[in-house]
């Protein structure tokens, strides 16, 4: 089945630790995105990537880092510099400007719930 | 800067009735897309419907339809024959093809009552 997977589903971090959230897609999508969702709020963009080995900061990139070494993978590292990392993290992917009904439509993974202890 | 506003934090509707969720956006661009996503209690984001800005015809998907008013920068979602499974958070989103960044509203929590 084609789709987007995120792991783990739940993650606990001690203060001062870096943790990495995994995101993999087998949809052959060019673009991948990371969002943070806090209770009662919408989605805020952390980082996004449109091509391998290239990525751009979103609106709340401080304290986070990413890599895009493969088209299908876009891991997110939450560093100790992120002061309030407890949140729900969503990964998404989309095509870029290709013809078809799915053009530029973003699809989401199931999310990772990160809690700082 | 582009913005998306959902002015209804919470709404409720009786089962089988019709409900309309509001969304307005602000942009000076012409080539963009608009989306409605549903987030049920499982928190999985599910695409409900999408609209290309260059299309005048309003998009429909079964019981879901939109009222796209480009000049007014309005993009409302109508849910007909509401079902209990429609209970969820609904997010409106905007994407400009110049950056491929998606901007989301703060969401409307919809509860369908039996």
Described by the principal axes of the CA atoms, the overall outline of chain A is globular
- Reading the helices and strands of chain A in chain order gives EEEEEEEEEEE
Please state roughly what percent of the residues of chain A sit in beta strands, choosing from under 5%, 5-15%, 15-25%, 25-35%, 35-45% or over 45%: over 45%
* Overall pLDDT metric of chain A: 91
Helix content of chain B: under 10%
Report the helical percentage of chain A.
under 10%
Uncertain regions spanning at least 5 consecutive residues of chain A: none
Q: What is the H-and-E element order of chain B?
A: EEEEEEEEEEEE
Largest sheet of chain A: 7 strands, mixed
- Mean of all residue-level pLDDT scores of chain B: 95
Q: List the chains of the largest interface with their residue counts.
A: A-B, 23 and 22 residues
Distance between the termini of chain B: 41 Å
Instruction: Provide a count of the helices of chain A.
Output: 0
Quaternary status of these chains?
heterodimer
Structural class of chain B: mainly beta
Describe the structure.
The complex is a heterodimer of chains A (117) and B (114). In chain A, a hairpin with a 2-residue loop joins strand 5 and strand 6 (54-57). The mean pLDDT of chain A is 91. Chain A is built from no helices and 11 strands. By secondary structure, chain A is mainly β. Chain B is mainly beta. Helices cover 0% and strands 54% of the residues of chain B. Chain B contains no helices and 12 strands. Classes of the chains: A mainly beta (117), B mainly beta (114). Chain A binds chain B through residues 31, 33, 35, 41-43, 45, 48, 50, 58, 88, 90, 92, 94, 96-97, 104-108, 110-111, and chain B through 33, 35, 37, 42-47, 50, 91, 93, 95, 97, 100-107.
């Amino acid at each position: 089945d084609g789709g987007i997977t995120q792991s783990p589903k739940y993650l606990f971090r001690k203060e001062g630790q870096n943790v990495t959230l995994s995101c993999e897609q087998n949809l052959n999508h060019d673009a991948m995105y990371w969002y943070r969702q806090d209770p009662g709020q919408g989605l805020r963009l952390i980082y996004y990537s449109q091509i391998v080995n290239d990525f751009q900061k979103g609106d709340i990139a401080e304290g986070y880092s990413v890599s895009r070494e493969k088209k299908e993978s876009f891991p997110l590292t939450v560093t100790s510099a992120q002061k309030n990392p407890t949140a729900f993290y969503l990964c998404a992917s989309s095509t870029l400007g290709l013809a078809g009904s799915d053009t530029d439509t973003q699809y989401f993974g199931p999310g990772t719930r990160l809690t700082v202890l | 800067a582009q913005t998306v506003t959902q002015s209804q934090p919470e709404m409720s509707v009786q089962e089988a009735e019709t409900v309309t969720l509001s969304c307005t956006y602000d942009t000076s661009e012409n080539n963009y897309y608009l989306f409605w996503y549903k987030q049920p209690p499982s928190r999985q984001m599910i695409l409900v419907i999408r609209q290309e800005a260059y299309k005048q015809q309003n998009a429909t998907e079964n019981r879901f339809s939109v009222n796209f008013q480009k000049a007014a920068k309005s993009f409302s979602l109508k849910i007909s024959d509401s079902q209990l499974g429609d209970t969820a958070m609904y997010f409106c989103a905007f994407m400009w093809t110049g950056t491929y960044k998606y901007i989301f509203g703060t969401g409307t929590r919809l509860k369908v009552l039996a």
